[in-house]
Design a protein that fits this description.
This protein is an alpha+beta fold. It contains eleven helices and nine strands. It has two domains: 91 residues; 227 residues, BirA Bifunctional Protein, domain 2 (2-Layer Sandwich). Bound molecules: phenylalanine.
Length: 342
């Protein structure tokens, strides 16, 4: 019998050396110590074949063998687990002194950046901001702005009509009427909004953004307009930028002007950007037409106003030298990532 115990012992000792993982230890251990199929467990079943006087010694021998094996396996198990743990630490090691990987952060869309910059400049001058409406009726978009149904100036803007009465706003100027109906002077407001015109080429998109400005108070003149716009262009295009006013026509302003900025690319000498003229057209503006004030119940003998409308895409394209408006709407990250002033 002792031979059998010894041979099992030897079998364990021989097998143990080749075990490299805790999984292998577990499987090998099962061959001996599994209560049903293990070789040591099997020994117990042979008890009935043993002479009664030898049974006690046999049982003791099996138990000793079992304890020895359990001890052996648990020592081995501990050693192997420790080794495995060390290996894992090595593999998963993190070098905390390595420079961190740069994280990609998004940035605001150029149009939103420009919109925020313009708002910043004018709120510094005391303007309040109101969001514009995207759907207007004929009265606010045209008639109240001194552009009645048969007025030729309606052709200046290719309107998307939703019905004979409703349309997609073609200009943020409708905000002038909404504001003057609701507030009495002094008024100093800024209205960013989306506007829509059936127009589509390298510099025009059927949807674009405008920023309307309106000031109504006593003794407002073109000088106030020029002063405010001078501050605006210096902040956006650089301190050496200046403005000039050119006569123009809008039904809702009289006089009306087109505002040019001195070319910030060449400083006025003439280049590709300003088409050799030294000046770049940037926005439309003027003194609020008396008829518009009257339409809103404001006495034009007591009050006067100035208004301007900035094209946000145009202001953005000029600032960053973008020559096709589509680049602003194609969501190409290679373009958008280059424009981050925040
Ligand atoms: N609404 C005009 C346009 O879209 C711009 C403008 C605004 C002109 C305010 C004068 C005063 O062309």
């Amino acid at each position: 019998m002792n031979d059998k115990f010894e041979s099992i012992k030897q079998e364990i000792l021989d097998g143990i050396d080749g075990l490299a993982s805790s999984r292998a230890v577990y499987d090998f251990k099962k061959q001996f110590l599994d209560s049903k199929t293990g070789k040591i467990g099997q020994l117990m079943k042979e008890m009935k074949n043993i002479a009664p006087e030898e049974r006690a010694g046999f049982g003791k021998g099996v138990n000793e063998l079992k304890e020895w094996a359990q001890q052996k396996f648990s020592e081995l198990d501990e050693k192997i687990r420790e080794k495995e743990l060390k290996l894992r630490y090595e593999l998963e090691r993190i070098d905390v002194t390595m420079p961190a990987e740069g994280r990609e952060t998004g940035n605001l869309h150029p149009i939103t950046q420009m919109r925020n910059e313009i708002i910043d400049v004018f709120s510094g001058m005391g303007f309040e901001v109101f969001e514009n409406r995207e759907i207007e009726n004929d009265y606010y978009n045209f008639t109240a702005l001194n552009t009645p149904k048969d007025h030729p100036a309606r052709d200046m803007q290719d309107t998307f009509y939703l019905s004979p009465e409703f349309l997609l706003a073609t200009q943020t100027s409708a905000a002038q009427i909404h504001t003057m109906e609701e507030k009495k002077p002094p008024i100093k407001i800024l209205c960013p909004g989306k506007v829509f015109r059936s127009d589509d080429d390298a510099t025009h998109s059927p949807m674009f953004h405008q920023m309307e400005g309106l000031v109504v108070d006593k003794k407002i003149t073109l000088c106030d307009l020029k002063g405010m716009l001078d501050v605006f262009v210096k902040k956006i295009y650089g301190e050496s930028t200046t403005t000039r006013l050119r006569p123009s026509y809008f039904p809702f302003t009289e006089p009306s002007v087109e505002v040019d900025v001195s070319c910030f690319e060449c400083g006025g000498k003439g280049c590709k950007l300003c088409k050799g003229t030294g000046w770049i057209e940037i926005l439309g503006a003027g003194i609020v037409n008396r008829k518009v004030l009257e339409n809103c119940g404001i006495d034009p003998d007591e009050y006067s106003g100035l208004a301007f409308g900035i094209g946000i895409e145009r202001a953005t394209m000029l600032k960053y030298g973008i020559n096709n408006i589509k680049l602003l709407f194609e969501s190409d990250l290679r373009v958008l990532e280059q424009i981050d002033d925040n």
